[in-house]
Structures are given as C-alpha cells and as structure tokens.
Amino acid sequence: MKSRSFILFLTLSLLTVVLFFADLAWGSIHISLREMLSAFFGKGSEGVNSEILLNFRLPKAITAILAGASLSVAGLMMQTLFRNSLADPYILGASSGASLGVALVMMAASVLPVAFVNSGWALIVAAIIGASVVLALVVGVSFRVQNAVSLLIVGLMFGTIAGSIVSVLQNFSNPDAIKLFVMWTFGSLSAVTWTYMQVLLPVVLLGLGMAFFLQKRLDGLLLGENYARGLGISILQTRFFIVISTGLLAGGITAFTGPIAFVGVAIPHIARGIFRSSSHKILLPATVLCGASLILICDIISQVPTYTLPINTISALFGAPIIIWIILKKK
Amino acid sequence: MVEEKKINKLAQKCPFEGFRGLLTTQNLSIGYSKKGKTNTVQSTLNLKLSAGELVCLIGPNGSGKSTLLRTLTGLQKPLAGKTLIDGKEILKLKQREKALLIALVLTERVDMENATVYNLVSLGRHPHSNWWGNISTIEDKIIRQAIEMVHLGHKMFHPINELSDGEKQRAMIAKALAQDTPIIMLDEPTAHLDLPNRVEIMLLLHKLAHETKKAIILSTHELDLALQAADRIWLMSNENNGIECGVPEDLVFNGSFNHVFESKSYFFNAANGNFSMNYPMNRKVWVSGDKTRMYWTLRALARAGFMVVEDAEIQISVTETGWEIKENCFKTIEELLDKLGKGLI
Hints:
heterodimer; A: mainly alpha; globular; B: alpha/beta; six-stranded mixed sheet; five-stranded antiparallel sheet
C-alpha cells in the first residue's frame, strides 16, 4: 500500500513539474526550453522573451500552483469538517465573503493609505477577514443545523447576502472602481505581480502549514464530532483553526485571482479516488499536487484561444460535471 | 521480549498507572437546562463502576439512559453533583486526559470513504500518539490485537463501507479497545442488529470485560440479553426514582423489573426473563398432555384469547402427533385454533 502511494506521489510531482514548464512555454509567444534556461541563469536576460518569462509567466505559473493547492486544501478541510462531500469554500460562501472584503477595499480605497493598498496587503487582509467571517458564521449555524444539504443552502445564502452588499456598494461607487472590481471578479492568475507575490506566498504557506498541522485532528473529525471528542480532540479549538486556515487559503487566493469555482469541491474527490485513502497525511499533499496540476492545465487551456479566457470559466467547465457525478454516485 | 518491554514501558507512561477503572458519582443530578428552565431527569445518583465488570443500563424510553451516559463521559454537564474517575472530577479533566480514561462507542453512523478496518481502529490510538500520528510497531501490534479481539482479523484491510452492520459495530468496539482505556461506554451497541449479531456483541463485551479487566458499561433495550450477559444491571425508572443497581437475578427476585416496566399490556415474566403480553382472555379451556408441546400450545391459545382453567368445558389433550378434543383430531395448531375460533366445539 505504501509503495503504491509513493509511486503515485512521484508521478504526480513529475506531472506538476512538467506542467509548470509547459505553462511557462505556452502562450501567444512560444518560449523554448533553451531560452527559459538562459533567462533563469542570467544569460541574455535583456531580451523581450526573458522579460515576459520572468515578470509575467513565472509569477503566473507560481500563482497557478498556489491557487490550485490552496483552494483544494481548503475544500478538503471543509468536506472533512462538515462531513459533506459537496462542501467547499466557494459553495459555503467564503469566496463571496472575500469578494465583499475586496469590494470594500477597492471602492473605499481613497480612505486607506496608498502604500497599504498598493502593496496588496489591504486586498488580502480584507479578503481573508471577509472569508473567515462568513465561514465562522456558517460554522456557527452548523451547531444548530445538522442536515448537510440545509447547511450548504445556508452557506449559499450567506454568499448571496455578501453579493448583495457588494451590489449596493457598486451603486455608490465611481465607475473606475466598479470597472476595476468587475475585472477582478472574472478571475485571472496574471494579476499577481512580484510585489503581490511577496504578500500572497507567506499567507498561502501559513495556511497550508496550519492545514498540515491539523492533519491528525482532521482524521479524527472523519468519525463525527462526538467521536472526535471521545478521542481527546478539542472541537471548538479545531473548528477555529480550520476556519482560520481556510480563510487564509481561500481568502488569500481569492484576493488576487478573483473567485475560482469548483476546484475546491472537485480536487479532494479526485485525490481520494487516485490515492484510495482516508488519511489526511496522504490526502493533504495529494490535493496539493492534484490541485496545482489542474490549475496549470486550466491555465494552459485558457492560453489556446487568441484571447485569454478567464480561469473561472475553464475550471467551471470540468468542475461542474464532477459535482453532478458525485451526486449521481451517492444514489 | 524487547517488544514486551516496550509495551510495559508504554503502560508506565500512562498517567493513571495501576488504576482499576473505578468510576463513582456523588449525588449526581442529570437533565437539561434550557433558557433558565431545568428539566431534571434523575437526581441524587450514587453509582459505582468497578473494573472487570459488564454493566447494562436498562430503562424505558425517556428514563435518561443517554443523558446519564453523556453526563458520565463529560459530554454533558450535570445539574448537580459530580462524577469521579480515580478520585478526579471528570469535568476538570482535559479532553485528552478524558480520552485516556473513557472510550466511546456511539449510535452515530460512521461513513469514511476509502478507510479500512485498520484505518478506523488506528484512530483509537489518537490520544496516545504524537501530533504527526505515526504508527510505530508497538502501536501496530495494539491495533492488530484489538481487531483480532473482535474477530475481524480476516477483514483487517477491508473497506469499512463494505462491512455488515454487525461487523461495523465490532470495528467500532475494536477502535474503543485500541484506545486502551480502563472504561468503555457504549450507547445502544445492539440497536439495528439482527439477533445473532446482538447475541455475539453482548457475549463479546462480556468476555472483554472479564479478560481485559476493563469496566464496560452499555445502554440497551435487550432485556433478556442483558440479564444473561451483565454482571450488574443499572435499572432506570421513568419517574425520577433513581437507579436500582444490582446483580440481574436479585433485581428479578425483588420485583424491580415489574415495577419499572409496569404496564397493562404486558408483564415481566420472572420465569423466563422475558416480557409477556397480557392478552384479553375471555374463553376458557383446559390443556393436558405432552410437556414440550404444551408450552407452545399455551402460547397460541393465549394469543387467541383462551384462558387456561381447570375443569373448563373444552378439554384439549396434547399428544405426540397432534391435538385432540373429544373425538376430533387436529394435525396443526392452525386447524385447532380455526375450529375453536368458529365455536364449533
């Protein structure tokens, strides 16, 4: 069993690396591997191609990996916490909460100090707070609502409320801010510059670190909360950490790429299917690799047409059928 | 040898070494308190649970079996009084310390995708392992032992979703065993199981209590099984009358069962430890003859509304091949009841 997981991890890691370089090479201008290497190692770095590679495609590819890993791990934690195979940060309203945070910052940017806004900290902090608050509300409701489907609907409702507040805000904002916000909602991996990366990377790493730290407790939660208590797990504390970790991951990514749907639901299922495991020691790294590969593929596909497609569209195209498949499989 | 030494070392690490699994309650009141209203289910309970005994908690619905178990495990706060384990108050223990003392088997359904019996049982090692939760060779041995104890060795690496309900319950018991606690509490472990599985689970728990010297307490509705398997019974009654504790047979003799389960429609039959229904009986017959066939004949007659009275007008004699009333012979009870019912005799 262990060797099987090992081979799978090796294969997936290689796949991720290959996809990473493919994502760097693909685009409106083709960049060969030789050019890539010379750009990385400082030979002939004055060329346009190396400029594109280093300042545009490289941060974009890294963002793709971070986005895939974050959303998938956040989805896995939500599915375990709610013991619901359809839970994910997007459905439970975390992304909407993040949108609300972002909308508040973008449309009220004039009030905030310029340096804070430009560095991206304002965006990410607002998104994380927005995501965490909505998640905390949903978790709070989950004390009273036991039914899994009802809980998802509650999540959708919180998301809708956040969306409505955003619409109200738009009504009172100037056209420039609205345009900026609408562009953001389309979702794009290329929005992350090196400046933003300095903010995004530590946030995502912190979120992932927390998730890995929680892996043993997550295993216990699979039995349900009463059994988990019986195993010595403090439920309140664990819930709190899961909400914060998910808020960091989902909120952090959403702050820069806009909402990306369906990745959070679909990837944990793919990882469970491939690795045939229930242990989070295996599932967490598995979702990281699967999620990273998948967003890289999405990004490569989105480059195929002359005009780059929004990443959200591509992820929905394959994510939505997977959800339908999950529901059908349950019957 | 080396491994045994390691296991002994592990036992020494346990903060409650030499602890005999003694749980006591002091003037415990259980119930619910909601919005200032208190609903006391049972009060001033002074209970005692000793090592190596199987205790069955019995009582009608609503008598507070689950509430008591939840309170004893510290999942719910008592209205008054306290629960002590090894002299320590349960509410003051940390979650992990509690998990080292009491293992739970609950009624909740467990549905873990992809998990095998081994995976499930290894979760029982949770309170013992470090934060990463690695399974050492010693841990592995304990897990395998627990699985063997519940006779699931042949299904160790089967997915739990493919187990039968009885096997699933046994796997949960193995998880509780792997937790290696002096006390195991089970909430209705025989619910949803068929008779052979119910008997097997009860026998298994009885054996485990005696062999491992754990204190095992379970709530159940299976009166006859509990009477056979339990070393001690805690009998709860509906009207906050406290809990009668004792050896099953003593409770039968002093009429506690009949008192607790008092009803017009059935009575506790001390002769066989079962509940018998009180049928409305308005006709009279007298039966004589073969002893073994007699028992079943009487049952059928009672259900059909016949009271057995000496010197009744209808006299049935049970023979080895059938039933006779005067000159009429009947091959089956159905024929007999049919004739009697139509009043032809």
